[in-house]
Structure formats: structure tokens, C-alpha cells
Sequence to fold (282 residues):
Amino acid sequence: MTHLLLEFLSIFMSFIIFIVLISLPMPERTPFLQVIGTVFLSSAILDIPHTIYYAGFTGISNTGLSVIFWMFARFIQSCGLILAILHLKYKNLNTRFTSFTFLFPLLSILLIFLIKLLPTNIFYVEGLGTTTLKSVLEILYTLLFLTFSIKNKNNPYLLLSGVMFALSEIAFIKYASLFDWTLWFGHIFKILGVFNIAFYTLTNFIYNPLKDYKTLSDKYRREGEKLNETISKIISVQNNALETLSEAINCKDRKSLVEILRTFSEKENIEISVFSREKKYL
Fold:
């Protein structure tokens, strides 16, 4: 039951990673992100039969078959992440990657049917444990995941995900039974790796954009409030100026006119000078 929970949690998070990354608009959805998205979808597709055939399901469990699905899922995942970092080095792979990466999920679906044609003991033999071929491949996967981690050392989420996946593969290099304690550590490290990729995805493409949107929204709201205050003040001054002008036009003597202008000047904090041939009044 614990294995089922861990695997389906990992599968669910992998689908989330795919949906978020593939939903990005093209300028932001770089081939690097597209590869990561399709790779996690592809590995999740193969993890489903791996989970179903895992020991513990009466009538349908098949240990050897479950391990084969696991190995192919990790093959696609490790090699796919290396393809992702290759794009960062060779920018001319853009157009090829755009069309090629969508073949990964189709390959996984095809493998679900083809894998059943393979001998079930190529990676695991009941009563004896893992085969030499599996151990060698697990070491290879470990090196590929570590390479991905090193190449992304400046990004803590990607760095940790590569390390977690590598530790997971180390735990699966050699075991005698599917219930060995090392396998539980392996599954925990695996889900931690998936979680780090999920955190990277959700932080950079959901949380941070929403945070930036809120910051900009608050900033423009404050600027809008200041602008409204300025406009209101201008309108108020304009209205007072028109009222003052009307009073000045109807004024009967010079002294009253000067007093009207003085009152307007003090009220609006605007300096006004009125001159006549005899003297300066303001």
C-alpha cells in the first residue's frame, strides 16, 4: 500500500509538471522545458503499469514485469534530462526538439505493449534478486542524473532533483527482494526528485508570475490613486479659478479685486502678482 501511495503521488506530480510546462506560451516554453515536461509525462505513463504489476496485487502482480517497466521509465527519464541539457549547449537543436519531444509519450505507450513480449527475468529473477544487466544500467542512470544535477548546479531545485534521482538509482542497484529496506529509500528519493522538479515548475511558472502580477497590480493601483488625486486637485483648482475669475469680472472696485485674488492665492497656494501704474498690490 505504501508503494502504491508513493508511486501514484509521483505519477500525479509528473502529470502536473507536464501540464504546466506544456501550457506555457511559446516564447517561454523553451525546448529545455518542453523536454522536461514530455519526459516526465512519458516516465509517468510507464510508472503506471510498474505500480500495477508490483508485488502485492493478487492475481495481477508480476515482479519481473514490474521491474522491466521501472527500468524503461528510468531510461526515458535519465536520457530525456540529458537531452534537455544538451539543448542548453547546442541552441541550433530548437526546431528538432520541438517536434521530436512529443514522440516520448507515444514511445511510452508503445512500450507498454512491447515490454510484455520480453522475458520477465532480464532484470530481476525471483528468489535470486537483480541481474547484472540491471545493476549496470542503474549505475548508468545514476551517472546521467548526476550529470543533469552538475549541469544545473546554479538552480537549487534542478540540482537537488538530479541528486535525489541519483540516490534513488543507487538504492536500486542491487537487492534480493522487492521488500528490501533499500527499495523504500529508493522510492522516497525518487519522489523527492519529482517534488523538486515540481517545485521548480510551480515556483517559476505559477507562483512567481502570480507574485509579480500582484506586485505590479498593487503598484499600478497606488499610481492610479495618486493620479486620481492629482486630477481631482487640478479640477478643484480649475473650478476655483473659474469662480475667482467670475467674481473678479463682477468686481466693482480695485480693492475688492485685489482681495479676491489674494484669497484665491492663499487658498490654492499659488503666487499671483497684480500691477497697476501706481503700485504693486500682491
Notes: Residues 157 and 196 are 5 Å apart (CA to CA). The radius of gyration is 35 Å. The mean pLDDT is 85.
